[in-house]
Write a structure and sequence with these properties.
This protein has about 210 residues and is mainly beta. It contains 1 helix and 10 strands, in the order αββββββββββ. The chain has one helix spanning about 5-20; strands at about 40-50, 60-70, 70-80, 85-100, 105-120, 125-135, 145-155, 160-175, 180-190, 195-205. A hairpin with a 6-residue loop joins strand 5 and strand 6 (about 125-135).
Amino acid sequence: MQRQPVRLGIAIALLAIGPSTVTAQITNQPVYVWPKHGTGLSINFDYGRGLNTNSGELNAFGGRATLGLGPITVSAGASSVDLGPSSEISFGGNASFNVLSAPLLPVGVAIFAGFGTIDPGTGSIKSYPIGAAISVKPPTPAIGIELWAAPRVNIVNDGTDTETSFAVSGGANLDLPIGIGIHAALDYVSKDNEELLLGAGLHYKFTIPGLGL
Protein backbone atom coordinates (compact mmCIF):
# COMPACT_ATOMS: atom_id res chain seq x y z
CA MET A 1 0.00 0.00 0.00
CA GLN A 2 2.98 2.29 0.41
CA ARG A 3 4.36 1.76 -3.10
CA GLN A 4 2.18 4.38 -4.80
CA PRO A 5 3.44 7.33 -2.70
CA VAL A 6 7.02 6.15 -3.24
CA ARG A 7 6.53 5.96 -7.02
CA LEU A 8 4.91 9.39 -7.01
CA GLY A 9 7.88 10.79 -5.10
CA ILE A 10 10.32 9.28 -7.60
CA ALA A 11 8.37 10.71 -10.51
CA ILE A 12 8.37 14.19 -8.99
CA ALA A 13 12.10 13.98 -8.31
CA LEU A 14 12.85 12.92 -11.88
CA LEU A 15 10.75 15.70 -13.31
CA ALA A 16 12.66 18.11 -11.13
CA ILE A 17 15.91 16.73 -12.49
CA GLY A 18 14.60 16.89 -16.06
CA PRO A 19 15.39 20.56 -16.82
CA SER A 20 19.00 20.13 -15.73
CA THR A 21 19.48 17.40 -18.34
CA VAL A 22 18.58 19.65 -21.26
CA THR A 23 22.04 20.90 -22.09
CA ALA A 24 22.47 19.71 -25.67
CA GLN A 25 20.22 20.15 -28.64
CA ILE A 26 18.95 16.58 -28.09
CA THR A 27 18.45 15.84 -24.42
CA ASN A 28 21.02 13.55 -22.79
CA GLN A 29 22.94 13.21 -26.06
CA PRO A 30 26.24 15.00 -26.76
CA VAL A 31 26.31 17.80 -29.33
CA TYR A 32 27.80 16.09 -32.39
CA VAL A 33 29.62 18.28 -34.94
CA TRP A 34 31.82 16.56 -37.52
CA PRO A 35 33.72 19.06 -39.74
CA LYS A 36 35.15 16.20 -41.83
CA HIS A 37 31.78 14.51 -42.41
CA GLY A 38 32.04 15.35 -46.10
CA THR A 39 29.25 15.08 -48.67
CA GLY A 40 26.60 12.40 -48.50
CA LEU A 41 24.05 11.21 -45.97
CA SER A 42 24.77 9.37 -42.74
CA ILE A 43 22.20 7.65 -40.52
CA ASN A 44 23.23 7.60 -36.85
CA PHE A 45 21.90 5.44 -34.03
CA ASP A 46 22.78 7.00 -30.67
CA TYR A 47 22.86 6.03 -27.02
CA GLY A 48 23.43 8.65 -24.34
CA ARG A 49 23.71 8.63 -20.57
CA GLY A 50 24.35 11.20 -17.87
CA LEU A 51 27.47 10.28 -15.93
CA ASN A 52 26.92 12.36 -12.79
CA THR A 53 24.03 13.32 -10.52
CA ASN A 54 23.66 16.78 -12.03
CA SER A 55 23.08 15.28 -15.48
CA GLY A 56 20.32 13.06 -14.12
CA GLU A 57 22.11 9.73 -14.77
CA LEU A 58 19.36 9.03 -17.30
CA ASN A 59 19.47 6.86 -20.41
CA ALA A 60 18.53 8.11 -23.86
CA PHE A 61 18.10 6.23 -27.15
CA GLY A 62 17.69 7.98 -30.46
CA GLY A 63 18.86 8.64 -33.96
CA ARG A 64 19.99 11.40 -36.31
CA ALA A 65 20.29 12.00 -40.02
CA THR A 66 23.27 14.09 -41.13
CA LEU A 67 23.50 15.49 -44.64
CA GLY A 68 26.70 16.97 -46.04
CA LEU A 69 26.17 19.52 -48.82
CA GLY A 70 29.63 20.75 -49.66
CA PRO A 71 30.58 23.42 -47.10
CA ILE A 72 27.27 23.06 -45.22
CA THR A 73 26.29 20.10 -43.03
CA VAL A 74 22.85 19.78 -41.44
CA SER A 75 21.77 17.25 -38.84
CA ALA A 76 18.39 16.51 -37.23
CA GLY A 77 17.10 13.79 -34.96
CA ALA A 78 15.20 12.73 -31.88
CA SER A 79 15.84 10.82 -28.69
CA SER A 80 13.69 9.04 -26.14
CA VAL A 81 14.80 9.97 -22.60
CA ASP A 82 14.02 7.49 -19.81
CA LEU A 83 12.61 9.41 -16.85
CA GLY A 84 11.93 6.29 -14.78
CA PRO A 85 8.15 5.85 -14.71
CA SER A 86 7.84 7.43 -18.16
CA SER A 87 9.87 8.62 -21.13
CA GLU A 88 9.83 11.82 -23.16
CA ILE A 89 10.91 12.57 -26.70
CA SER A 90 13.47 15.29 -27.37
CA PHE A 91 13.91 16.78 -30.84
CA GLY A 92 16.84 18.78 -32.13
CA GLY A 93 19.43 19.46 -34.76
CA ASN A 94 22.19 21.75 -35.90
CA ALA A 95 23.74 23.27 -38.98
CA SER A 96 27.46 23.85 -39.50
CA PHE A 97 29.50 25.76 -42.05
CA ASN A 98 32.93 24.41 -42.89
CA VAL A 99 35.49 27.18 -42.67
CA LEU A 100 38.23 24.69 -43.52
CA SER A 101 37.59 21.18 -44.79
CA ALA A 102 39.57 20.51 -47.96
CA PRO A 103 39.59 16.78 -48.83
CA LEU A 104 43.40 16.59 -48.96
CA LEU A 105 43.86 18.34 -45.61
CA PRO A 106 43.63 16.26 -42.41
CA VAL A 107 42.20 19.19 -40.41
CA GLY A 108 38.65 20.54 -40.55
CA VAL A 109 37.18 23.62 -38.88
CA ALA A 110 33.50 24.58 -38.73
CA ILE A 111 31.15 26.99 -36.99
CA PHE A 112 27.73 25.75 -35.94
CA ALA A 113 24.40 26.59 -34.31
CA GLY A 114 21.67 24.26 -33.11
CA PHE A 115 18.26 23.98 -31.50
CA GLY A 116 16.62 21.39 -29.26
CA THR A 117 13.44 21.01 -27.26
CA ILE A 118 11.77 18.68 -24.76
CA ASP A 119 8.75 18.85 -22.48
CA PRO A 120 9.39 16.82 -19.30
CA GLY A 121 5.87 17.54 -18.04
CA THR A 122 6.58 20.98 -16.58
CA GLY A 123 6.63 22.98 -19.82
CA SER A 124 8.77 23.13 -22.93
CA ILE A 125 12.52 23.58 -22.43
CA LYS A 126 14.62 24.80 -25.35
CA SER A 127 18.38 24.75 -25.86
CA TYR A 128 20.58 26.64 -28.31
CA PRO A 129 24.20 25.48 -28.74
CA ILE A 130 26.42 27.93 -30.67
CA GLY A 131 30.11 27.36 -31.21
CA ALA A 132 32.98 26.09 -33.35
CA ALA A 133 34.42 22.65 -34.01
CA ILE A 134 37.76 21.30 -35.10
CA SER A 135 38.60 17.80 -36.23
CA VAL A 136 41.64 15.84 -37.35
CA LYS A 137 41.32 12.98 -39.82
CA PRO A 138 44.75 11.57 -40.62
CA PRO A 139 45.15 9.45 -43.76
CA THR A 140 44.85 5.76 -42.92
CA PRO A 141 44.91 2.81 -45.35
CA ALA A 142 41.77 0.92 -44.30
CA ILE A 143 39.94 2.55 -41.39
CA GLY A 144 38.93 6.20 -41.33
CA ILE A 145 39.60 7.88 -37.98
CA GLU A 146 38.30 11.32 -37.04
CA LEU A 147 39.03 13.03 -33.73
CA TRP A 148 36.98 16.14 -33.01
CA ALA A 149 36.15 18.74 -30.36
CA ALA A 150 33.43 21.39 -30.31
CA PRO A 151 33.47 24.13 -27.64
CA ARG A 152 30.27 26.16 -27.49
CA VAL A 153 28.10 28.67 -25.72
CA ASN A 154 25.16 26.77 -24.28
CA ILE A 155 21.85 28.64 -23.92
CA VAL A 156 18.88 27.00 -22.16
CA ASN A 157 15.44 28.54 -21.73
CA ASP A 158 12.69 26.94 -19.66
CA GLY A 159 10.00 29.47 -20.56
CA THR A 160 10.79 31.65 -17.55
CA ASP A 161 14.55 31.90 -17.16
CA THR A 162 17.47 31.76 -19.60
CA GLU A 163 20.80 30.28 -18.54
CA THR A 164 24.00 30.69 -20.53
CA SER A 165 27.08 28.57 -19.85
CA PHE A 166 30.24 27.25 -21.47
CA ALA A 167 30.23 23.68 -22.76
CA VAL A 168 32.35 21.41 -24.90
CA SER A 169 31.82 18.07 -26.60
CA GLY A 170 34.38 15.87 -28.28
CA GLY A 171 34.97 12.34 -29.42
CA ALA A 172 36.12 9.94 -32.10
CA ASN A 173 34.65 8.28 -35.19
CA LEU A 174 35.85 5.07 -36.80
CA ASP A 175 34.68 4.38 -40.36
CA LEU A 176 35.04 1.21 -42.41
CA PRO A 177 35.31 1.26 -46.22
CA ILE A 178 31.82 -0.31 -46.53
CA GLY A 179 30.23 2.77 -44.95
CA ILE A 180 29.57 1.40 -41.46
CA GLY A 181 31.18 3.11 -38.49
CA ILE A 182 31.06 3.64 -34.76
CA HIS A 183 31.24 6.88 -32.79
CA ALA A 184 31.68 7.92 -29.17
CA ALA A 185 31.72 11.29 -27.43
CA LEU A 186 31.70 13.11 -24.11
CA ASP A 187 29.82 16.33 -23.38
CA TYR A 188 30.70 18.65 -20.50
CA VAL A 189 28.69 21.66 -19.36
CA SER A 190 30.27 24.13 -16.92
CA LYS A 191 27.74 25.89 -14.71
CA ASP A 192 26.68 25.95 -11.06
CA ASN A 193 25.91 22.24 -11.30
CA GLU A 194 28.39 20.74 -13.75
CA GLU A 195 27.04 18.10 -16.10
CA LEU A 196 28.78 15.26 -17.93
CA LEU A 197 27.27 13.09 -20.66
CA LEU A 198 28.50 10.03 -22.52
CA GLY A 199 27.34 9.16 -26.01
CA ALA A 200 28.07 6.23 -28.32
CA GLY A 201 26.52 4.62 -31.34
CA LEU A 202 26.64 3.25 -34.87
CA HIS A 203 26.38 5.10 -38.16
CA TYR A 204 26.12 4.27 -41.83
CA LYS A 205 27.09 6.70 -44.56
CA PHE A 206 26.11 6.47 -48.21
CA THR A 207 26.11 8.66 -51.29
CA ILE A 208 23.08 10.10 -53.10
CA PRO A 209 23.86 9.91 -56.84
CA GLY A 210 20.83 11.97 -57.86
CA LEU A 211 22.16 14.91 -55.87
CA GLY A 212 25.74 14.40 -56.90
CA LEU A 213 26.68 13.55 -53.30
